[in-house]
Amino acid sequence: MKSLDIVIVNWNSGRDLYYCLQSIIANISADYLIENVIVVDNASTDGSFKAAEAVKLPIYLIKNARNLGFAAACNQGARIGSADYILFLNPDIIIFPFSINKAINFLEKDDNKNIGIVGIQLINEKNEIIRTCARFPNLYYFMIKIMGLDRLLPGLFKSNTMNEWDHKGSRRVDQVIGAFFLVRRKLFDLLGGFDERFFVYYEEVDFSYRAYKLGLYSYYLSSARAFHKGGGSSEKIKDLRLYYNLESRILYSFKHFNFLSAILILFATVTIELLTRIGWALLNNRNDNLMITLKGFGLIWKNLWKLAKKIIILK
């Protein structure tokens, strides 16, 4: 019987964590053993972590005194167990019955030994399939996003997110979303886990790309499904969400692109993208987006020296 550790990083998720844990109970199967459900609480203040104390699962609860970031908390949780598989799960996910079973059984097939990561089909509150898979980012895709061309002229300029594909069928892809991220333990150990220099965002992209370079690929399994609320606790801090997204994009560029391309991404992000986002907010009469943009980019400019030091360490 194969074994599974489930790692959930919680930060002020409210009742979402409780519903997520209940959906795990509904996925208990005789085909595999859940050894640990590890909930890593990143200094929540809403008491949401208490849901983990009352659920009938093999819970291991870690309460951090401060927010260590998503990548670091995932690694912290993964180190607790030793199961054959690790499922990294967002607390705003509700897994449909048998979905974990289907994903593990898929990886157990002899023909799929070159698959290291599995994601599943996610739906939203309207029962619509969410486009969650993506191509690995490169200079072209980042510049398209920075200039807003994927939003202005989506027919001509595709982003690295695979929006043109309906996600109704299963297929090998570059990257699956980290909300449901099933990984072989051997692969996780081989890669040394997530790169903790990414506080949040792009950590799963980086992980998937490093796995790809080793010849272990990502797969989107449409026959397994879950509900994904999306946004979650980060909806309350949209300016910080923007800041960390931009920071992680720049760090990813310096880690995986050549130096000149990374410098271009850095410069274009802090100048051109600022202007395109302001223009988009004004064009759509969205004062809320305008303020989020100004605050998020204000944090980038304020912390440029800290970002530079991270880049030096990264290289």
Structural write-up:
By secondary structure, the chain is an alpha/beta fold. It has two domains: 2-132 and 167-230, Spore Coat Polysaccharide Biosynthesis Protein SpsA, Chain A, CATH 3.90.550.10; 234-314, no CATH class. The protein is 41% helix and 20% strand. The chain is built from eleven helices and nine strands. Helix 1 links the parallel strand 1 and strand 2 (32-42). Helix 8 (238-256) packs across helix 10 (287-302) and helix 9 (259-283) runs antiparallel to helix 10. It is globular and about 55 Å long. The relative contact order is 0.14.
The low-confidence runs, each spanning 5 or more residues with pLDDT under 50, are: none
- Secondary-structure element pattern, one letter each: EHEEHEEHEHHEEHHEHHHH
Q: Please state the structural category.
A: alpha/beta
The CATH topology of the largest domain corresponds to: Spore Coat Polysaccharide Biosynthesis Protein SpsA, Chain A
CATH architectural grouping of the largest domain: Alpha-Beta Complex
What is the count of β-strands?
9
Number of domains: 2
Rg, alpha carbons: 19 Å
Q: What is the CA–CA distance across the termini? A: 42 Å
What summary fits the major beta sheet?
9 strands, mixed
CATH class of the largest domain: Alpha Beta
The CATH homologous superfamily of the largest domain is named Spore Coat Polysaccharide Biosynthesis Protein SpsA, Chain A
**Range of strand content:** 15-25%
Shape: globular
Overall residue-averaged pLDDT value: 94
Helix content: 40-55%
